[in-house]
């Protein structure tokens, strides 16, 4: 085991750290995470519109079109927000003006993704004469186009600024005015570049990337058990190395996660049954069914620590329980530690693989519904699973079952680790 640890430290960790800290990958990860408050709030409106109480539903029914608006302007145009978030984070790494960069990226995304619809003759009480943008083009389906547009726009801006192909204002001009003029020529180049691609070459970046990458989405975040197990394994494996698993996987898997839950929410709002959603493996599937107490299902480990004979483990367990109840597990990951600890690392990886398999089969056999909402990660898992699956009691029960399965898997490994800790404490007392 020592040789394995040495190999991981020497060969795997440097590569993982390099990938995780790469400029563009970091910008994508941070930009997508920045959209979470909007997506979560939009999801609450989905839950509100589908409260399973007939008297409440009857009251809400006349106001459904109005209550649907917050969802349309959050989840419904998430790619627009993602573009701005990715661009500003990438601009920060280049020390560019973030506001100008974000606006240029939005410009690039809109030109490359949304063709204005020109209504020449309006229909009374239906649509007026004018130009319209289809909100559907700004949804999660255009997320990959948003990433490319943001990165390319900021790279053009950065290149032109480095080469001094900008308009410089005299000293003493307020920074906000100076930054606007610096972005003037890059704005022209970006407009012409994306206009040429979309309208002269007739090439739709978002459609092309979605078509190209959707097979990968179906593997990692669709309905493939193998893909789901691979995702779970990689996230927990990186955590054992001491690297934030979602941070490494985020730029790769998060766009697929965001698309998957958005597709489910759209289908559910359109009237589809929660058992018949497009995607099983959303982030919420992992968050509520698998990551009970955090990645690795560590609430089970914390429970064992709380009744440990080891003073250190017992104290750490008590300190980690409340954060773990709200799915925050860094105290136990780095405190036990689980990092670079093969004894606890094995069940940390194994338990989620087992519970993922069980949860998958219970989902495909319609015992539990699929996820139809996106809630804050700090809600206790049984409650969040119940709410996110259209108020399904079997979903909440599954969380409890998975917790006890994880408890059983952790137990023998924990006893070995506890024995080592007790021996260490005994030596320290001598």
TrEMBL record:
The phosphoenolpyruvate-dependent sugar phosphotransferase system (PTS), a major carbohydrate active -transport system, catalyzes the phosphorylation of incoming sugar substrates concomitant with their translocation across the cell membrane. The lineage of its organism: Bacteria, Bacillati, Bacillota, Bacilli, Lactobacillales. Signal peptide: none annotated. NCBIfam families: lacE. The chain crosses the membrane at residues 31-51, 71-91, 103-120, 140-160, 181-201, 221-241, 285-307, 332-351, 358-379, 391-414. It is a multi-pass membrane protein. This is Permease IIC component. It comes from Vagococcus proximus. The keyword DNA repair does not apply. Residues 8-413 form the PTS EIIC type-3 domain.
């Amino acid at each position: 085991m020592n040789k394995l640890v040495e190999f991981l430290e020497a060969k795997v960790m440097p590569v993982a750290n390099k990938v995780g800290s790469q400029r563009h990958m970091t910008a994508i990860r941070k930009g997508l995470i920045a959209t979470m408050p909007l997506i979560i709030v939009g999801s609450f409106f989905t839950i509100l519109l589908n409260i399973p109480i007939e008297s409440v539903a009857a009251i809400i029914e006349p106001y459904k079109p109005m209550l649907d608006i917050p969802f349309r302007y959050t989840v419904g145009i998430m790619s627009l927000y993602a573009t701005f978030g990715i661009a500003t984070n990438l601009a920060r790494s280049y020390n560019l003006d973030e506001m100008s960069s974000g606006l240029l990226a939005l410009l690039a995304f809109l030109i490359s993704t949304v063709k204005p619809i020109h209504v020449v003759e309006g229909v009374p009480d239906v649509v007026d004469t004018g130009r319209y943008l289809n909100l559907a083009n700004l949804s999660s389906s255009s997320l990959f186009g948003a990433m490319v547009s943001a990165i390319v726009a900021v790279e053009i801006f950065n290149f032109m600024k480095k080469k001094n192909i900008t308009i410089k204002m005299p000293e003493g001009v307020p920074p906000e005015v100076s930054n606007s003029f610096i972005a003037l020529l890059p704005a022209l180049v970006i407009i012409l570049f994306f206009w040429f691609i979309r309208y002269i070459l007739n090439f739709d970046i978002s459609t092309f990337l979605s078509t190209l990458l959707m097979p990968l989405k179906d593997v990692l975040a669709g309905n493939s058990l193998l893909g789901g197990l691979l995702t779970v394994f990689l996230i927990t494996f990186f955590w054992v190395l001491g690297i934030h698993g979602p941070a490494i996987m985020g730029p790769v898997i998060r766009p697929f996660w965001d698309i998957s839950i958005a597709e489910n929410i759209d289908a559910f709002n359109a009237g589809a049954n929660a058992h018949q959603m497009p995607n099983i493996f959303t982030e919420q599937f992992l968050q509520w069914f698998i990551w009970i107490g955090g990645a690795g299902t560590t609430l089970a480990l914390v429970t064992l620590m709380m009744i440990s004979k080891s003073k250190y483990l017992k104290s750490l367990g008590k300190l980690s329980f409340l954060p773990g109840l709200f799915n925050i597990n860094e105290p136990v990951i780095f405190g036990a530690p689980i990092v670079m600890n093969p004894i606890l690392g094995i069940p940390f990886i194994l338990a989620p693989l087992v519970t993922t398999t069980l949860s998958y089969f219970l989902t495909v056999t319609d015992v539990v519904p699929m996820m139809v909402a996106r809630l804050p990660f700090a809600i206790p898992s049984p409650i969040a699973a119940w709410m996110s699956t259209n108020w399904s009691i079997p979903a909440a029960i599954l969380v409890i079952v998975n917790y006890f399965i994880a408890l059983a898997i952790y137990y023998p490994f924990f006893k070995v680790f506890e024995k080592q800790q007790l021996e260490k404490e005994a030596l320290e007392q001598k």
